[in-house]
């Protein structure tokens, strides 16, 4: 007792002597309770109109919500829960806005969040909701059937169903929205307290905010207790460790990680704390993920190695222009995966953790000196689990063989193996209703991970194996013990053993070995069928391979198979009852003869599509029986291609060819997938090899891309050697003007792999060629027949019916086509993204309406010079329909399109980025006012020859659409200096066209040279078109040149002060087709000519008025995130022969 008294005395002494400042226990100024719920009202107060949520709803509508709207909806749900007294709220939803809003609303109501993995069996879902004492459940409409078991036992627990179709602001589409509205009304009726009436800061920061259930890797899932304080600190740690507040502007976080998984690693709170945008994703959809990465410029996402592997191998994969931070966790990633991700500008941030640590708790911190290491060593270091988070104490590795339970660290030598343990702020409180499991978790005063690792001298930890029998497949935890226990419930199974086997997709997966009871017979497929239909195994746990064996290896005490005996099991002999022709009970499907190619085609980076993947069986001479391959020869072609594509020295490639035949085939395949045919000598060499008989390699089958466009004079005879190439995927014959139906049809005939065909400007082609395409090319995705004027509706109609995967269609100048073929494409080819109909004069409004309404993914629609298109094309669109995919619309010279149509276009396509209305001469300021509603989405607008537009409309456009980069107002004669002075304030303006705007003066040019912006910076102007602006003088242009260092094009045709020999010597040459009169007034400075003109004026002219010294880029200046996103802008068009560069702004590619 004396010891106890002494400790009590010490505590009392501390209270009396620790500080001379009186304590204020009832209100501590230097302390506030921590709750992550506070992050949402805080974000809404700071940036109420900032975008909080982007989502494609269940009915394929685009939903965007601001932080003000999101905070209001979360507040409404919170008051609804308070009104009805709900304290434990279950969630069964995919990654939807409703899930995100519920996370904040439940906590704000002082309730506990019980989110469940919707991939579990109905029985497991029922167990979790019952164990967690759920008194109401928020459920997605799709997942209501998963509650069948639970509802049969708890029929009185109410459901709040979310239909996930609420894509219209203010629209109520289901019970969840109704609950939000009811809560908002309840708040209003009771004093309108708002967030002040909720627990945005918890009364007790150590109280439970959520129960995060494990995946049932033991007998039953455990509920991990997350506290307000723990989630707050874990979220802030993730803001720092994942760099959510690092990027300029706000983070754009893509929800590839399930929100139910350890409550989304606390990222619902972390992203909100950084005021980022949540990009919600109902399911993993790799084409959609790549679309969001490219179009929405995602900056961050979290994913397991499995997801990243499939993402890197998706056919849409290509290197991104800006880096994306990818937080990687779950099963240990490979160094190869990190290299693959880095090549695509997906920068991996490797973390490690568990549900009991709120998700990540360690990070592999990248050190600058690693950049000097060999790539293999660099990525191996990146794949380590690293050091503890900033909000936790350092991770430790302790000895596992200390008998008295003492916590003793292993040596930091990278050799001694121990168990990873944690202490710190982001260790969970314990297990709900399970004190015994909590005691074991915290035995010895540390949190035990159960994972075995070594501790490196630099303090980094690295996992070597798992102490528990857990298989992590695709990010899901699978208990081998639980799976074995379930398998032995089969009436014919005596014993079962489950081990982990590598899997190229899922990282690892379970494989089961079973023994059969005496007198019974069983095979693998029968066990798998039983597991799917009878047992209580969750779908993701079902093994894809079950092998029947005579005996399972056991320990000396006949205990069940431990993880360390897995190698023995994998080497165990097969069942003696197996037939000689099939000595395994494995149910893995046989690889088809062409599986290699088909898989790689479907999954590969598009820039390397099917590089060198040859059919190995076909490469053997028919009369030679292939020898059994050594292990190194059995490497999948995908891996070989990844290796060979990194080789640069011919000697290295030669050495690879000599390893074995499989390596040789794939090495040669890399060299031959796209043979160089850019000269006649190269072509001769290629055709000679293709024509060789009895060659070691079948070169004809290795060619995947054939491009003859550089040769020009190609004839039917030239392409004869390539007729035997039947695996071509991309065929480019543009400008091969001597080719006829015979040559092209022979190339296409029998080529069922063809995906893209470009025969533009082959004016001899007729319907015969396209009929051949329709019969042979079911995979066709891209077709360019620009200028093939002899082609008619007849063949295009057949193509539309037989080639239904078409995505890009260019029919420019195909003057014989009409509504019949266009409407057929709309009906039969739902994947079309881009369609060009320039100068298709027989196409009328009904076709345009059909294209927009039917093609839900249509991004680019070009109708230049389709003179029969009028207002009805757009006025007949469904009244409330929107087409959010449409980004580019070109209506050049569609004179019958007027203000009514423009207003409907803007309403129907609110995300238009490029809008071309050149020569739509009847539109007025009313159209421009409508265009203003496009706001920040608008980047390119062309209003040339729209002569009714006035200064007031332009001023309004500048104020509403401040991200405009390219604008053309040629021949808008009513515009004055006031319009240009307003346009000069656009911070990102790169190109401006003012041809024949004869009212503008030097005041306009000085405004462009010295824009009055709120954030002064170097001018971004690159091209300025001022031809026939006759009131301009040298002084203004001199100032423009000296203050626009990026200027590369300046047109001053017909501007008298510049039509002198002194200055025109710096011009580029006039086009050859110009008349002498046109040559006399031609004055266009490009490239180095601009610099020479600037230097000349600086030497011979006085300093221009108000010249600044801004002649260089700022050191810290970065290109805008949308740079380079202007897709395939319109071909150059001229007013007449004398107007040199009316809209000649050049092509801009995506």
Automatic annotation (TrEMBL):
Source taxon at top rank: Eukaryota
Family recorded in the similarity comment: Belongs to the ATP-dependent AMP-binding enzyme family.
GO BP: fatty acid metabolic process
Residues covered by the F-box domain: 632-677
A family per Pfam: DUF7885
GO molecular function: ligase activity
SMART domains named among the record's database cross-references: LRR_CC
Domain AMP-binding enzyme C-terminal, chain residue ranges per copy: 483-557
Residue ranges occupied by any AMP-dependent synthetase/ligase domain in the UniProt entry: 42-432
Keywords from the UniProt entry: Fatty acid metabolism, Leucine-rich repeat, Ligase, Lipid metabolism, Repeat, Ubl conjugation pathway
Domain F-box/LRR-repeat protein 15-like leucin rich repeat residue range list: 760-986
An annotated GO cellular component: SCF ubiquitin ligase complex
Source species of the chain: Penicillium antarcticum
Family annotation (InterPro entries): AMP-bd_C, AMP-bd_C_sf, AMP-dep_synth/lig_dom, ANL_N_sf, F-box-like_dom_sf, F-box_dom, FBXL15_LRR, Leu-rich_rpt_Cys-con_subtyp
Descriptive protein name: F-box domain-containing protein
Bias type Polar residues, positions: 572-589
Positions of region (Disordered): 571-593
